[in-house]
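Continuing the series of single-chain predictions for the mutant panel. This is the parent chain; the variants come on the following pages.
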Amino acid sequence: MASKRKPAFNAQSFLDSAGLSKQIINYAKGAVVFSQGDRCKSVLYVQAGAVKLSVVSKGGREAVVAMLGAGEFFGEGCLAGQAVRMGTATAAASSTILLVDKDEMVDLLHKQRALSDRFITHMLARNIRIEEDLIDQLFNSSEKRLARTLLLLARYGKHDKPVREVPAISQSTLAEMVGTTRSRVNFFMKKFQRLGFIDYSDGLKVNNSLLTVVLHD
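Parent structure:
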């Protein structure tokens, strides 16, 4: 008789469990979750919505370093001894965020193997993404970087849908993420729309066919 397969660990269900001391906060679009320089006291988890992570230089220049969606952790620097937040987290859409105290998160990672495995997978994926972003900035054109950014925002590869909706995001924010000007982003967005790679008719939707721009030499 075949043995029953153990169901996959559900981080959302676990973090929602009654025995976990936590805070669940709803943020309106544009609300600040934490600011650069705030004390690091908790690890955060996106239950619903989208979060923009950005950093401001001493000269006042802002750079968007990541856009996160449901099912992703952030603010984990506190686990490695980070005393203050290195950047600002802003709700890019109406969002529900779960906050777990740093000490409790450390205890959970020691005691709960499934959660620890899930968290390590998250950290490895984040490191791979950082490496890919660096390579993207060094070797790819702004058009390819924009295409890759849109595919990442649409969570390409994580769902089977051929067309996916992207959380509302301005062309100025896209320009910051890509490392180019808003006018260049506008030019390429119009080009992508003309070619059928994206659709603006009801919110921004990204077609899998946009991948051809990334793969084209």
